[in-house]
Amino acid sequence: MLITNARIVTRDEDFMGTVRVEDGRIAEIAPGNTAAHDAIDWEGDYLLPGFVELHTDNIEKHLAPRPGVLWNHEAAIIVHDAQVASAGITTVFDALGVGSRPEDGVRGRELQVRCAQSIGKYVERGLLRADHFLHLRCEVGTTDVVEVFDSLSTHPLFKLASVMDHTPGQRQWQDHEKWRKYQERHGKWTDEHTSKILAELSDHQERYATKHRGDIVERCKGLGISLASHDDTLVEHVEEAARDGIALAEFPTTFEAARAAREHGIATIMGAPNVVRGGSHSGNVSALDLARDGLLDILSSDYVPSSLLIAVFDLVAKAGWTLPRAVATVSYAPAHAAGLTDRGAIVAGLRADFVRVALFDGQPVPRETYRAGRRVA
Which domain covers residue 79, as residue numbers? Predict the structure, then answer.
């Protein structure tokens, strides 16, 4: 395949040029156009590296499309895959909740395990558009997190884990009322029910969180699995992550935590929806503010796959970043953090994972997505 008249974005620059693909890899990149009869004219559209998504809860939206409605999990995986591919994501780490909590809903143990099994089955048969891996989100303040982790630790697609503590009163949910409002998105709670759940969560955190965090950290070290912290708020949280050998900080909630992560050499992941909305949905630090201070390394689409592409151009327009630097947050940086050295940039020899993007009235529009040189969306 020969593509010409494309605005190619590499790690260092962007220019009008031509890309040749052979055997699923980028064979050649050259500035300028070609008049070769077999060249495909991209009409000035952008050619960006395929996006690498390390943390998405997008499957959950398809598992529960309406309050009280639980959808077929295999059908949910298929439409999730189609959605991420059409958004330009060529490599996706599907985030699965590990650890049973009250009011789990779609994050219940049995459903999450079934999802892991089905993703593996579809990947083995070559039925999915994007390249899928598993990210086990380990809720450390639960009774069964280590047990469920162990049951999935040998899954062939497991490549990333995070240690989380969503107990209200700290980290992401310092404000109990904001936590309750989020929980009530599927239906109102009584004060009595809320108090009961809060007491149970606090009790489980006190009894299990420290021990289970240590167990998960040690298991990941033994397995050679990359590990992330989650919702670090205090400098002490980051110092704990550094002692644990954690390489990624997912969604730090304060400037102080993000600065401490940088000082400890821990890469910071922020939500692309935070960039697009101009702030956090739960009232925490703005990803754009971190970007302006040079404290942002990687973007995750989190709960909106299309947010990655929009956020890239918002970093240019609103944070003053160059386009190559912004694109790296959704391609090279996450690929590098996950140890995927065969993708993440428009470089000769790497996999031909790329996306065609038109810019119309300032709105980026994904038009085509290619994985290993084959169009998948």
Answer: 50-342
